[in-house]
Amino acid sequence: MVVALGFSMAIMISIPSGIMSNQTATQRLTENYNELITNMQEEINATLTLIECSPSSGFAFGPMPGGSESGSYLDESIVSYIESIQGVKDVVPLLEKSEGTSQTMERFGRTFTFLRPDYTIIGVPLNSSLIDNYSILPTNITEGRNLREGDSEVVLLSLNNTEYFGVEVGDTVNILGSDFTVVGVHGASGFREGMMLYMNISDAQKITDLEGKISRLDVYAEDQSYVDGIASTIESNYPELSATTASERLSQFQNMQAMSQNTLQNAEATISQTQTTAFQEIVIAVAATSLIVLFTMLYTVRERTKEIGILKAIGFSNWNVMSQFMFEGILLSLMAGVVGIAIGIVGAPVLSSLLLPHISMFGTQRGPGSFQGYTNPEAAGSQVATAALDPQLMLLAFGVAALLGALGSLYPAWRASRTSPMEALKYE
Amino acid sequence: MSEMVLKTEKLDKVFKLGGRQVRALSDVNLQVKKGDFISIMGPSGSGKTTLLNMLGCLDKPTYGKVILDGVDVTKVPEKRLFKTRKYKVGFIFQTFNLMPYLNAVENVELPMDGTKKSGDEKRKRARELLKVVGLSEREEHKPHRLSAGEQQRVAIARALANNPAIVLADEPTGNLDSKTGYEIVRLLGKLSTDQGTTIIMVTHDSHMASCAGRMLFLSDGRLLAKERQGTHLMKDALKCPNCGKDTQPDDKYCPGCGKKL
Q: Does A416 lie in the same domain as A273?
């Protein structure tokens, strides 16, 4: 009896815990999506008119050291030509060169050579019309100041760089044989951005022996309508250049937005379905618990009719009898509550997964890499699985147990109290 | 002249059985003095138990008064009647009706629940009463470990717990063999003579009934005019018939001559 009661109690406990964890998971998912979308939106809005041009021969991770170097850099003269294309507003030439140690690695029976960078020099044209209008320089300066127009023989380091060189703001640092004054530190981290140090492009060209060379161009159009025309003009005149427009990123973003909204809608639908189901199940569990208490106590009262008669004959009041049976009903319920919590602790994940519909937000939909990184389906998934019981819920369960015990034994206790002692004494 | 503890006036009780009216009691006038030991005899269905229920405030008469300790209990509202039952009446049943999950002393304490007595006082009183009925050695025993006679003694002790005005015994020897039954009746008689307990015993056993001070006869709900003085041999009964020495109710052998009683 107590075990049966315990089970219905366990159901009552498990369901809210399941719902709570489902909601937490969905909430986290929603927050992640919103953050992702905001970030992407900002990035795309800022770069809608941007065409990135780089030598198509180079690998994605930049010019390789050694022999391939000459082919990886462009002549600075290209800038003035591209500036003359109709619709081009500004051209930002950039020189990027990583310095580090060359390493070889054996894989699949072949030898790969790659550069393990210690730092990456970014040469930027320090022209206020460019650096003020476009996001060329890092924005999060943690110490000192950013680079500005006319700066020369100064450098902006990353936090990583300051450790590598062992310098701080105001110090002089020697880079490839030339001295630079550290004017500031930027807070970018990560494998690529964390390596970057910024200086005037002419300084960069000088110390890397790449006078008159640049590694890539950021081309800004007058407005979005010129972007495709400019890109095709560049690619037809300079086959060695590959021009990437924002439109690819835009369509990718739009896809992702649609997809994430779809997923969130699914999740919300599931949650509301879950809540409906849970509500029904809780109502059933509550009803079952009260009914079990009711019938148990009715049976007990019937079973002990004679005892009630005796008690009343020797002077127990109606209230004495009633409170006696109420007390027993509540005690029974509380015992069931203990059993229920025990079952709940062990079985809450199983029970809630049995009783509640699953959140199917990670089913067939798979986003691009960055999308997965943001949502981390494993983390959210395990959150759903471990519907944990928190102490508050247990306390609540005890309260509910007592309440249901009182509720279920109210009628039997009342009946007991109204038993006529004369009739009850005849009962065998 | 002892004071009157119980008096009934023109007590009538009519039951309705399947649309037919059955008159269970008819014009019962009874007067009981303090310390009386009365037996009421009558065949089955004569209204013995009905009368006892009226006297014990378990049932209300259709007509008439029951004046218990100076109060007409038929006028006490149902809600307060439990107090009358608690403090004025002690019940002894044919089937003993002890609580099986309580031991002897706890059973005796039961009627004192909800009185002003402290736990220690209740325990002290219960022990005293068990001593009176000769069960001091059996205080911690649960009913199932007691003999039928011992169970009835516990029930008698329980009936006396709140020192009631009357003790009502409904066939107290009905479930006992004649020897044990006789011991129980002797005990009741002793309580009446020694402690001044007023006892009304219903029985259909004339031998048991004749041990009481007064024998009343009930027939078809009427108290018959003939009333016999019971042999009331309690004092004599407590003496050994062989040597005449005083014996205790629970003595199986005479402490004087050693003969079986």
A: yes
Other CB atoms within 10 A of residue A28 CB: 15
C-alpha to C-alpha distance for A162 and A168, rounded to whole angstroms = 6
| DSSP-derived secondary structure for A184-248 | EEE---STTGGGEEEEEHHHHHHHTT-TTEESEEEEEESSGGGHHHHHHHHHHH-TTEEEE-HHH
Kindly state whether residues A271 and A412 are assigned to the same domain. Answer: yes
Residues A290 and A160 in one domain: no
Task: Give the domain extent around B202.
Answer: 35-62+72-230
Q: What ipTM was estimated for this complex?
A: 0.84
Reduced to 3 states (helix: H, G, I; strand: E, B; else coil), residue B6 is: strand
Q: Chain B within 8 Å of A354 (Cβ-Cβ)? A: no
Q: What's the structural domain count of chain B?
A: 1
- C-beta atoms of B93 and A425 within 8 A: yes
Residue A194 counted as domain residue: yes
Which amino acid is residue A27, in one-letter code?
A: Q
How far apart, in Å, are the Cα atoms of A72 and each of A54, A56, A66, A238, A240? 9, 8, 11, 14, 10
- Residue B109 in any domain: the answer is yes
| Same domain, residue pair A288 and A376 | yes
Residues of chain B neighbouring A307 (CB-CB closer than 8 A): 99
Q: Is the CB of A421 inside 8 Å of chain B's CB atoms? A: yes
- Min Cα distance B62 → chain A (Å) is 16
| Residue A142 at interface with chain B, using a CB cutoff of 8 Å | no
Tokens of A47: 């770069």
The count of structural domains within chain A is 2
Q: Which of A314, A316, A324, A423 to mutate to test the interface with B (most CBs of B within 10 A)?
A: A314
Q: B215 to chain A, minimum CA–CA distance in Å?
A: 25
Specify which residues B67 forms β-bridges with.
B7, B72
For an interface test with A, the pick among B49, B52, B58 (most A C-beta atoms closer than 10 Å) comes out as B58
Domain range spanning residue A181? Answer: 93-217
Whether residues A199 and A259 share a domain: the answer is: no
Quick check: B58 and A316 CB within 8 A?
A: no
How far off is chain B from A426, nearest CA to CA, in Å?
A: 11
CB-nearest partner of B82 from A307, A316, A420: A316
Do A140 and A206 have their domain in common? yes
A414 and B CB contact within 8 Å: no
Question: Above 50 in pLDDT, residue B13?
Answer: yes
User: Whose structure tokens read 């029904």?
Assistant: A280
Which of A:319-338 have CB within 8 Å of B? Answer: 320
Which pTM does this prediction carry? Answer: 0.60
Tokens, residue B134 = 């000769």
Query: CA-based diameter of chain B, in Å?
Result: 63
Residue of B nearest to A307 (CA): B99
Contact: B82, A422; criterion CB under 8 Å: no
A273 in the Ramachandran plot: left (φ > 0), alpha (ψ -120 to 50) or beta?
alpha
Shared-domain flag, residues A302 and A371: yes
- What does the pLDDT profile of chain A (428 residues) look like in tens digits? 777 777 777 777 777 777 777 777 777 777 877 787 777 777 777 777 888 888 875 444 444 443 334 447 888 888 888 888 888 888 889 998 888 887 777 767 777 777 778 889 999 998 888 888 888 888 888 888 998 888 888 999 998 888 888 898 888 998 888 899 999 999 887 777 888 999 999 899 989 888 888 988 888 888 888 888 888 888 888 888 888 787 766 777 778 778 877 877 887 777 777 777 777 777 888 888 888 888 989 999 999 899 999 999 999 999 999 999 999 989 988 888 888 888 877 777 777 677 666 554 443 333 333 333 334 444 444 344 445 556 777 788 788 888 888 888 999 999 999 888 888 888 76
Contact A315 B86 (CB under 8 A): yes
